[in-house]
Amino acid sequence: MKQLCIVLGLATLLILANATTKPVANVAQAVKDWERAKEYTKEYLDAMPEDGYKLKPTPEIRSFAEQMMHLADANFGFTAAATGKASPMERGAAEKAAATSSKEQVIKTVMDSYDFAINGLKGMSDAQLGETMKLFGRDMTREVAFAKCFEHQTHHRGQTTIYLRLKGIKPPNEKLF
Fold this sequence. Notes:
By secondary structure, the protein is mainly alpha-helical. It has a single domain, classed as Four Helix Bundle (Hemerythrin (Met), subunit A) (Up-down Bundle), CATH 1.20.120.450. The chain is built from 7 helices and 2 strands. A two-stranded antiparallel sheet has the order 1-2. Mean pLDDT is 89; it is low at 4-23.
């Protein structure tokens, strides 16, 4: 019995070791997720009226436009780092432009940032997503860099739910799939 437990324990360790080193990256699924996120974010952008783009729930936090342009800055920056392709915008330029940008300009910039991420992913193979790189001084795979970017855009889009509610607007329905 003791030998069986040892054998099963070693087999489990081998399976776990293989599972953590085997690439799990899947470009096709990542592209689908990013396309869904783009569509969802566009619904938020469309739902907010022009006069709500300057809305700040409290004076010390970002306006709706600044939140969305911050999201765009990160999409450009993370994707540039993960793909090695130059970002079409300087770091922080989108958020700085938010104060003087129209709703139409914000929507264009944010949608362009999603297109940059989606096209960056489409230009990679599953194997490339599994490659290690440095981001913010940390070693990670390109897949993890894209995942962190995805998490970031989800976070900031989610924050803007309150902005819509303050304008009396029901936020778009969740798009998990």
